[in-house]
C-alpha cells in the first residue's frame, strides 16, 4: 500500500512543507511540498535525507538502563525511584533539566519544564544562554520585554536589508528571520528593487547572493553600528519617531556615547574601507528605512549585547520598527494585539534572576541558570540527577572535558533522544523517543519570527520501542505524583489528542492552525500595536545605562590579531549530521594567515586560546577576511568549545563564541 503524508520538516526553523511517500508502513521518499504557503517546494540536503536517517542504524530503538536493554516499566520505575531518593536526600534542586534544540520548536519541552516546576526545582538549563541571550537581553533593555522581536519578510517592509552575523540561506534563519526558501525569497527581494548587504567575515552563502559583501574583523560589529547611529542621528533619522517614541534625554545620551565612533576609528577597528562604510550609510539614507538583520553571530561577539542594542537603536531612529513600511512584530495570539496593554516591563537596568549556589559570582537569566554553570552545580553535589531532552551538552557548552567528567559523576542521567549518540551512550537511563517523522507537532514560534504556526502529523508510527516525548515525561511525572498532561491519562490518550490539548493552552488561534495542518495558519500581526500596547509608556528605552557604559568601555578594548569565527554549515545541525556522506569540516583560515604562518591547504593546525586548543586539517579560503579563523561547532573530536572561555558575559550569562583572539600554528607530522 502506498500513501502520501504532508508534514513539516522541523530540523531547522524554516519548517519546510514536505510530502512523504509511505509504502507498506515504510517511509521511502520525501519531496518538497510545492503548494506549501512558505516553503513552496524548497528543501535542503538535511530534509531530503529524512528517510535514510529515519531508517538508519543510528536510531535509539530500545529503553536502556545502565547499558542494558530493559522494559519501559523497569526503566521508568528505576529512574523515578532514584530521583525520589535524591530529592529526599538533597531537596528538589537535586534534579536538573537541560532542554535544547532537538525538539525546541514542537513544544515538546513544555511537559518537562512543567515537571521541574511542579517538583519545585530551579535547576533549568537550555541553549537560551548559549544562543539567544544577547538578543533577549537587548530586547528587554530597549522594550522592557525580552521576548519582543521584530520580524523581517523579504516581501514587505524596508527595501534595504543589512545582514550581520547571520546566514539564513544556510541556517533557515533565526529570531526574526526564521524563513523557508530564503534563496528564492532573496532573489525576489532584489528583483523588486530591494538592496541586500551582508556583513560577514566569511563569504557565506547569503553573502554570495547579496549586492554588497563587507568582511569586517570578527567581533567588531558594534563599532560599525555605533558609527551608523552617530551619522544617522545627525542626518537620516525619522524625526517623528525620534520625537514621539523616544525620550529626548535618551537621544542625547546616545548621541554623546556614539560621538567618539568616527569614520577613522571605525574603519581602523573593523578593517573595513572608509569608502565602503560611506556607501553603506548612503544606502540607508537613500532607502530611509533599514532592516539590520542580526543573527547568532551578532550576539556571540565579545560586545554582542551592545551590538544587538545598537542594531535596534538604528532601526528605531530610522523609523523602521512597527510602522508602515517598516518591520512588523508577530504576536503569540490575537489576545496579545487586542487585549489590554502589557504591564510587566523589566526594570530599566534589566531583570534580575537568581544564579546557581555554586557560582555566587554569577546571576541567572529569566528563570534559568547559565548553561556553562551546569558542571559547577554537579561538581558541588547540588545536582545529582539530570534530564537531557533534545540536547548535546558534550558539544554545545564550553570546556567539554569538564562537562563530560561532571556528567559521569551524576547518579542519574536521563537522556530522551531519538538517536543513539555519545550522550545517550553516557546515560544511566536512555529513553528512545519519537522523531519528527513519528510524532504530531504543534509548531508555534511567532516570537522567534515564524509567521505561520503548524500542526504537523506523524508520517509513520514510532519504530522500535520508541515512545512520544510527552508520554515519557508524563510517565516519569505520574510516578513522582505529578501530572503534566493537564488531566489526560498518558496510558490511554493518543498523540494527536495530547498535542492538540497542550496546543490550545499555548495559542488562542489553535483551531485555525489544526485546520491548516502542515500548511498551518498565519499568526496574528499588525502595525502599531507594539507602540500602543507593549512599549513602556509608548516609548523605546533607546539608551539603557548599562549598555552606554559598555559601549564607552569598548573603545579601549583590543581587537587585533587572529580572531575566531563561529558559523553553521548546510549538512549538519549543531552536533547532528543529517545530510548523507559528510564528515568533520576543515578549519578554515585566510590566505593572509596561511602566508604569515607558513601553512598550506591540508596541513594539520592547532588553534588555541588561554582556555585550551583544538586541532584539525586546514583549508585556505582566499575569500575569508584576513583576521578570521573559522571553525564549525558540534564536533566531539574537533570540538571548538575547548577554546571557548567558560566565563560568560555578565549581562547575558552567555559565553562568547565568536570574535575572540586565537593563536594559530601548524602541527608538524611526527
Ligand atoms: N544547516 C544548519 N542550519 C541551522 C543550524 C545548523 O547547525 N546547521 N543551527 C540552527 C541553530 S541552533 C541556530 S541558533 C540558527 C542560527 O542561524 P544564524 O544566526 O543564521 O547562524 P549562521 O548560519 O551560523 O550564520 C552566522 C554568520 O555569522 C558570521 N559571523 C561570525 N562571526 C561574525 C562576526 O564577528 N561578525 C559578523 N558580522 N558576522 C560573523 C558567520 O561567518 C556566519 O556566516 O541556525 C539553525 N539552523
Ligand atoms: N562554540 C560554539 N558553541 C555553540 C554554538 C556555536 O556556534 N559555537 N552554538 C550554540 C547554539 S546556537 C545552540 S542552539 C546550541 C545547541 O546545543 P544543543 O541543543 O545542546 O545541541 P544539539 O547538537 O543541537 O543537540 C540536539 C540533540 O537533540 C537530538 N534530537 C534530534 N531530534 C530530536 C527530537 O525530535 N527529540 C529529541 N528529544 N531529541 C532530538 C539530537 O540527536 C541531539 O542529540 O549550541 C551552542 N553552542
Ligand atoms: S532542515 Fe532543510 S528541509 Fe528541513 S526545515 Fe530546515 S531548510 Fe527545510
Ligand atoms: Mo541555536
Automatic annotation (TrEMBL):
Keywords: Iron, Iron-sulfur, Metal-binding. It holds the Pfam family Molydop_binding. One of its GO terms (molecular function) is metal ion binding. The keyword Metal-binding applies. Gene3D superfamilies: 2.40.40.20, 3.40.50.740, ADC-like domains, Dimethylsulfoxide Reductase, domain 2. It comes from the Bacteria. Signal peptide: none annotated. SUPFAM superfamilies: ADC-like, Formate dehydrogenase/DMSO reductase, domains 1-3. Residues 2-58 form the 4Fe-4S Mo/W bis-MGD-type domain. The keyword Secreted does not apply. Belongs to the prokaryotic molybdopterin-containing oxidoreductase family. This is Anaerobic selenocysteine-containing dehydrogenase. It comes from Trujillonella endophytica.
Amino acid at each position: 500500500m502506498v500513501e502520501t503524508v504532508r508534514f513539516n520538516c522541523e530540523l531547522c526553523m524554516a519548517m519546510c512543507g514536505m510530502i512523504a511517500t509511505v509504502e507498506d508502513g515504510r517511509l521511502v521518499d520525501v519531496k518538497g511540498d510545492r503548494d506549501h504557503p512558505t516553503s513552496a517546494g524548497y528543501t535542503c540536503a538535511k530534509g531530503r535525507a529524512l528517510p535514510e536517517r529515519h531508517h538508519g542504524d543510528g536510531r535509539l530503538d530500545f529503553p536502556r538502563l545502565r547499558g542494558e536493554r530493559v522494559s519501559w516499566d523497569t526503566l521508568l520505575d528505576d529512574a523515578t525511584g532514584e530521583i525520589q531518593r535524591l530529592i529526599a536526600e538533597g531537596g528538589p534542586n537535586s534534579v536538573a533539566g537541560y532542554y535544547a534544540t532537538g525538539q525546541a520548536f514542537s513544544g515538546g519541552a513544555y511537559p518537562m519544564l512543567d515537571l521541574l516546576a511542579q517538583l519545585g526545582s530551579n535547576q533549568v538549563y537550555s541553549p537560551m544562554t548559549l544562543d539567544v541571550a544577547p538578543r533577549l537581553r537587548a530586547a528587554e533593555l530597549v522594550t522592557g520585554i525580552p521576548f519582543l522581536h521584530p520580524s523581517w519578510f523579504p516581501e514587505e517592509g524596508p527595501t534595504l536589508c543589512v545582514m550581520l552575523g547571520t546566514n539564513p540561506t544556510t541556517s533557515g534563519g533565526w529570531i526574526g528571520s526564521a524563513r523557508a526558501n530564503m534563496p528564492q525569497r532573496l532573489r525576489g527581494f532584489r528583483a523588486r528593487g530591494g538592496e541586500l548587504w551582508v556583513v560577514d567575515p566569511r563569504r557565506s552563502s547569503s553573502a554570495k547572493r547579496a549586492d554588497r559583501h563587507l568582511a569586517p574583523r570578527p567581533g567588531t560589529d558594534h563599532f560599525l553600528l555605533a558609527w551608523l547611529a552617530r551619522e544617522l542621528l545627525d542626518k537620516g533619522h525619522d524625526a517623528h519617531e525620534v520625537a514621539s517614541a523616544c525620550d529626548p534625554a535618551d537621544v542625547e545620551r546616545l548621541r554623546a556615547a556614539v560621538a567618539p565612533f568616527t569614520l577613522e576609528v571605525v574603519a581602523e577597528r573593523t578593517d573595513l574601507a572608509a569608502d565602503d562604510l560611506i556607501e553603506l550609510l548612503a544606502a540607508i539614507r537613500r532607502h530611509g528605512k533599514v532592516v539590520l538583520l542580526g543573527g547568532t553571530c551578532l550576539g556571540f561577539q565579545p560586545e554582542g549585547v551592545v551590538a544587538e542594542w545598537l542594531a535596534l537603536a538604528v532601526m528605531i531612529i530610522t523609523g523602521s520598527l512597527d510602522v508602515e513600511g517598516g518591520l512588523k512584530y508577530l504576536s503569540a495570539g490575537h489576545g496579545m494585539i487586542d487585549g489590554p496593554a502589557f504591564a510587566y516591563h523589566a526594570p530599566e537596568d534589566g531583570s534580575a534572576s537568581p544564579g546557581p549556589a555554586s557560582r555566587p559570582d554569577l546571576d541567572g537569566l529569566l528563570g534559568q541558570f547559565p548553561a556553562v554553570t551546569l558542571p559547577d552545580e554537579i561538581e558541588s553535589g547540588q545536582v545529582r540527577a539530570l534530564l537531557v531532552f533534545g540536547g548535546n551538552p558534550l558539544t554545545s557548552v564550553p570546556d567539554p572535558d569538564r562537562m563530560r567528567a561532571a556528567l559521569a559523576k551524576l547518579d542519574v542521567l536521563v537522556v530522551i533522544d531519538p538517536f543513539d549518540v555519545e550522550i545517550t551512550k553516557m546515560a544511566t537511563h536512555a529513553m528512545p523517543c519519537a522523531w519528527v517523522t513519528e510524532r504530531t507537532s504543534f509548531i508555534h514560534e511567532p516570537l522567534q519570527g515564524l509567521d505561520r504556526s503548524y500542526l504537523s502529523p506523524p508520517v509513520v508510527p514510532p519504530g522500535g520501542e520508541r515512545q512520544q516525548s510527552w508520554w515519557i515525561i508524563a510517565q516519569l511525572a505520574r510516578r513522582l505524583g505529578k501530572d503534566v498532561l493537564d488531566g489526560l491519562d498518558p496510558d490511554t490518550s493518543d498523540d494527536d489528542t495530547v498535542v492538540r490539548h497542550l496546543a490550545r493552552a499555548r495559542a488562542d488561534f489553535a483551531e485555525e492552525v489544526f485546520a491548516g495542518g502542515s500548511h498551518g495558519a498565519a499568526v496574528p500581526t499588525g502595525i502599531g500595536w507594539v507602540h500602543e500596547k507593549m512599549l513602556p509608556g509608548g516609548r523605546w528605552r533607546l539608551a539603557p545605562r548599562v549598555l552606554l557604559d559598555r559601549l564607552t568601555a569598548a573603545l579601549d578594548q583590543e581587537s587585533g590579531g587572529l580572531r575566531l569565527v563561529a558559523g553553521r554549515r548546510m549538512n549538519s545541525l549543531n552536533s547532528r549530521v543529517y545530510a548523507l556522506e559528510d564528515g568533520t569540516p576543515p578549519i578554515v583560515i585566510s590566505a593572509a594567515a596561511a602566508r604569515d604562518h607558513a601553512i598550506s591547504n591540508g596541513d594539520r593546525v592547532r588553534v588555541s586560546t588561554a582556555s585550551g586548543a583544538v586541532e584539525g586539517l586546514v583549508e585556505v579560503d582566499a575569500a575569508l577576511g584576513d583576521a578570521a579563523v573559522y571553525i564549525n561547532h558540534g564536533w566531539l573530536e574537533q570540538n571548538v568549545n575547548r577554546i571557548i572561555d567558560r566565563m560568560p558575559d555578565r549581562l547575558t550569562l552567555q559565553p562568547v563564541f565568536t570574535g575572540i583572539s586565537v593563536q594559530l600554528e601548524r602541527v608538524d607530522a611526527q
